[in-house]
Inverse folding.
């Protein structure tokens, strides 16, 4: 499905990364033909002045974020509340939004050129939760063994990546912040724990009306 | 120069989370009545600010800035607002002079930027007689953040109010950065103590963590009423709060203290919803 992509946003967390680490993301995105906005969440001094200048010169919108320092959770978790704040302040500004990781992502096509008939897409990793030891431990530490048992045969959905209409992405972020409140607070300190929170949202029906897309672009 | 230079870009920045339009009316309407032509930005959060209040604030010319990240912060709102102020000013570096202000208990009587602005930062004292060591709240904040030895060292020092700070963009950024850096050194549990920002504020001032701070006497530019008695300020016929020397401070803060009942009721009546 080809759509008008002029009002789309790609947003990611860039705290702790330098310009060279972010260059593949930004330049591959430009090369894909994407014409929308790219916003990175940054923090001083974890994002150096040189990186700030480079990102600005590449046309990236910078969103300062310092509140994470006072949150008893890892950065992977704290980014979701900032995403929600940014999108809430930009009510209906964008048609579609992609939330994504940054330093380890490259684009080969315009990321919005997929079937988005459900209005919200999550992506699979191809294996099951029970086969992913780190993820299983994360779910157990956040929600206990019963939650792990009920999710272990489900497909792993890629954490940190969601694509949808602005309103549905905001629904996802509200759900994520609710799930953060449900998790064992100690578990939220572990890097990458948001993957566990994301599985709960996807597989326990906390967000409805989404499509699960396999790594090759088809519906899982 | 005693009036704001119209070519300068001024900002009044405050947090309005948890307050409704009626509570914020004295702040906003009195500021507008002074002829202030700068920008007023108030932090709001949809869970703590009703849609009606947001709509009303906008109708009064206020720019509302959404603040949601406080939900995950292990800190009271008094401290958390400073973090958001810093984020906001990083994103909006174009202001020449800025007033950080409490909102619910402030009214304006004249142009808030009507002082010479030759200094990078202006802090404002609460009292010429009451010191940190003989104020229970201020003592608690210093001790909670930095322990008994710091309280002892600062006990004879003047109390400055963290609810009103004015400065250049550069000065305010230095202040907010110092506030956040200090929070990293303080006892982590103290961040949840309501009002703890005032403890940090006074450490910044008295330990000279930033240079070029002008500490102004109470009632010189801002009348902070918490430690003042009924004889220190009176209600003029035109409804203004007048100091004992006959002057009227451009900004009146803490007018809701019980010892200033007449002033409080006068302000409430004057700014009641039409």
């Amino acid at each position: 499905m080809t759509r008008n992509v002029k009002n789309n946003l790609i947003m990611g967390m860039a705290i702790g990364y330098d310009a060279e680490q972010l260059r593949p993301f930004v330049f591959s995105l430009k090369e894909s033909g994407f014409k929308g906005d790219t916003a990175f969440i940054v923090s001083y001094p974890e994002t150096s002045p040189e990186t700030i200048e480079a990102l600005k010169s590449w046309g990236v919108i910078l969103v300062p974020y310092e509140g994470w320092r006072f949150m008893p959770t890892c950065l992977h978790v704290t980014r979701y509340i900032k995403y929600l704040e940014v999108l809430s302040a930009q009510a209906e500004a964008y048609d579609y939004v992609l939330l994504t990781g940054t330093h380890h992502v490259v684009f080969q096509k315009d990321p919005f050129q997929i079937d988005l008939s459900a209005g919200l897409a999550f992506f699979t990793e191809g294996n099951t939760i029970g086969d992913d030891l780190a993820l299983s431990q994360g779910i157990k530490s956040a929600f206990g063994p019963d939650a792990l048992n009920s999710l272990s045969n489900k497909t792993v959905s890629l954490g940190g990546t969601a694509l949808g209409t602005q309103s549905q992405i905001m629904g996802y972020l509200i759900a994520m912040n609710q799930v953060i409140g449900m998790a064992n607070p100690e578990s939220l300190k572990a890097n990458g724990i948001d993957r566990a929170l994301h599985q709960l949202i996807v597989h326990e029906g906390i967000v409805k009306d989404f499509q699960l897309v396999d790594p090759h672009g088809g519906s899982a | 120069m005693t009036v704001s230079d119209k070519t300068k870009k001024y900002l009044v920045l405050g947090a309005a989370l948890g307050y409704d339009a009626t509570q914020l009316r004295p702040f906003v309407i009195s500021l507008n009545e002074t002829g202030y032509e700068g920008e007023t930005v108030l932090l709001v959060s949809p869970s703590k600010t009703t849609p009606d209040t947001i709509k009303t604030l906008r109708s009064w010319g206020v720019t509302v800035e959404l603040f949601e990240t406080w939900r995950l912060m292990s800190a009271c709102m008094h401290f958390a607002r400073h973090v958001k102020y810093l984020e906001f000013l990083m994103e909006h570096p174009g202001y020449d002079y800025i007033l950080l202000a409490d909102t619910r208990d402030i009214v304006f009587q004249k142009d808030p930027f009507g002082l010479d602005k030759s200094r990078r930062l202006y802090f404002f004292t609460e009292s010429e007689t009451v010191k940190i060591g003989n104020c229970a709240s201020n003592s608690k904040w210093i001790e909670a953040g930095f322990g008994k030895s710091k309280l002892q060292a600062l006990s004879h020092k003047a109390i400055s109010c963290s609810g009103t700070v004015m400065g250049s963009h550069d000065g305010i950024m230095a202040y907010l950065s110092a506030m956040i850096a200090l929070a990293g050194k303080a006892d982590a549990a103290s961040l949840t103590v309501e009002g703890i920002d005032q403890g940090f504020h006074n450490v910044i001032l008295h330990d000279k963590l930033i240079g070029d701070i002008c500490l102004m006497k109470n009632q010189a530019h801002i009348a902070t009423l918490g430690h003042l008695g009924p004889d220190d300020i009176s209600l003029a016929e035109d409804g203004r709060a007048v100091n004992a020397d006959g002057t009227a401070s451009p900004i009146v803060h803490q007018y809701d203290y019980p010892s200033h009942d007449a002033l409080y009721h006068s302000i409430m009546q004057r700014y009641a919803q039409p």
Remarks:
- The interface with chain B takes residues 44, 62-73, 77-78, 81-82, 84-85, 88-89, 177, 180 of chain A (CB under 8 Å).
- The beta strands of chain A are 9-13, 37-42, 61-64, 96-99, 120-128, 155-157, 162-165, 211-213.
- Residues 1-6 of chain A have pLDDT under 50 and may be disordered.
- DSSP finds seven helices and eight strands in chain A.
